[in-house]
Amino acid sequence: MAAIPDNMKEIFAPPAALASGRMGYCPGCSHGIIHRLIAEALDEFKLVDCAVGIASVGCSVFAYDYFECDMVQVAHGRAPAVATGLKRSLPDSFVFAYQGDGDLAAIGMAEIIHAASRGENISIFFINNAVFGMTGGQLAPTTLVGQKTSTTPLGREAKTAGYPIRVCELLSALEGPAYIARVTAATPKYVRQAKRAIKRAFQAQIEGRGFSLVEILCTCPTRWKLSPADCSKWIEENMAPFYPLGEFINWDDNDAS
Predict the structure, then answer these.
(1) Which of 56, 138, 214, 243 makes the best surface tag, with the fewest CB within 10 Å?
(2) What parts of the chain have a pLDDT lower than 70?
(3) CA 175 – CA 97 distance, rounded (Å)
(4) What is the spatial distance between Cα 61 and Cα 31, in angstroms, rounded to a whole number?
(5) Cα(144)–Cα(168) distance, rounded to whole angstroms?
(6) Do 101 and 139 form a contact (C-beta atoms < 8 A)?
(7) In angstroms, rounded to a whole number, what is the distance separating the alpha carbons of residues 132 and 109?
(8) 202-215: per-residue pLDDT in tens?
(9) pLDDT of residue 2
């Protein structure tokens, strides 16, 4: 980074928890934004030295190159199981997993349900772009009805492919979670809301409240075949109505009752 002239004041800089260098994500993809928000939270809570992140299989498979904390690469869908083992064996560490919709809601569905049901004191960041991004744009558990993918070129039909799975609503039926929220990174306003939810998930683990998950509706310009601007509009007009934003479980609400 170039030196700042003496007559200028630095007011914006990359978070220390985010590694320098170029990310490998497609232009317009939301992964970079979410990485930054998680890194900012790691900095603000001063957790870099004790954090262990878990990189899933998918577009985020190289997340271990992007964070300046300890990282573990795990098999497809097994992040919640590995996170459970890490947190139980290293209870003073901060353990988070970063998973896509194919990784979490397809092959990893059993792991996420049982980790949430047990109330494991871990934090999961769930990236939902409604498609298998890395492997060719195939139908995902979160693909909307009518949405075209490489394996549903005429659009998803509920009769043959079933309905999209609403993960937050599914996990909210369990007794174990302390915090469940759904946000998006579609616009600057929504990014600020996403930051608040991510920090809330951090607090849940730091305070020993139990399982937390933040689902983030994210863009995929390459597989959606849309411009970044049109992707943001598509989230607001198509994904958000089916996947409503907001908090589903908040321990403060439980405490108040």
Answers:
(1) 138
(2) 1-4, 254-257
(3) 21
(4) 11
(5) 16
(6) no
(7) 15
(8) 999 999 999 999 99
(9) 62
Tell me the DSSP string of 182-240.
EEE-SSHHHHHHHHHHHHHHHHHHHTT---EEEEEE---HHHHT--HHHHHHHIIIIIH
**What are the backbone dihedrals phi and psi of residue 124, each rounded to the nearest 5 degrees, phi first?**
-115, 130
Consecutive H or E run containing 179: strand 179-184
Q: Please check whether the domain covering 31-256 is classified as CATH 3.40.50.970.
A: yes
Q: Which two tokens stand for residue 102?
A: 């194919």
HSE at residue 166, side-chain half, CA atoms within 13 A, is 17
Extract the tokens encoding 235.
């989230």
Specify whether the CB–CB gap between 178 and 212 falls below 8 A: yes
* Cβ neighbourhood burial of 31 (10 Å; 0-12, 13-18, 19+): buried
Q: Token digits for 62?
A: 């190289």
The rounded distance, in Å, linking the Cα atoms of 198 and 193 is 9
> In the chain, where are the structural domains located?
31-256
At 134 the pLDDT is 78
Distances (CA, A) of 154 to 7, 163, 199: 58, 15, 40
